[in-house]
Amino acid sequence: MGDKVDYLNQLIFMLQEQLQGNKESVAAISKFIKPLFAEKVFREPTLTSEQVSAIEIIMREWRGMTSFEPGCLEGIPKLLSLLKWVQYQQRIDLLAIYKRDEWKAIVQLRGPVESVLKKRCTKCNTHYFSMGVSGFLDIFSLICSECGNVYFKSVYSESEPPSCECGGTYKNACPKCGELKGSIIAEISPYQYFKDHQYIRSED
Predict the structure, then answer these.
(1) DSSP H helices in 47-100
(2) SS3 assignment, position 96
(3) Of the ranges 7-16, 129-138, 183-192, which one carries the lowest mean pLDDT score?
(4) What is the rounded CA–CA span in Å between residue 184 and residue 119?
């Protein structure tokens, strides 16, 4: 595929095409990065294993950003910046990615969650959403029963969650009947959910 700069420049160029409104770019990028997510280990001799892992982390976010219409295009420039950084980092501490300002901006777009689950209440059949929070974070999510905004509360906090700005109540159960159990019926990208909803985190 050429040298490592050419490989990443090609990917960067394709992302820039997407930003410029090229409707075919999403399919082209999906095809281009597919080997990264295949069952077999992706081997590109012009890239270090750390660079490959970093690209996989970054492009997993791209997949979430483009998994719905119209997508989360405002996050693409942050991915581009991270890829340009990876170009010249043959040895990468992957934890360094999560400390960069670009990554922090990405988290602002999709919240500190790994997945958003659509559930059906086992008692009243109401459909509602639940957040899949990383086990590395000492927080849990409460969702407003009225508008769907999210409050992330520290597991160490003893204070009651505030009222939502809309006047609703933050809950971790069915917003209609309060039942805790629900069956998963679908999963959507956090980027999609937080494109139309806001979240806050407890300060304690």
Answers:
(1) 49-65, 76-87
(2) helix
(3) 129-138
(4) 4
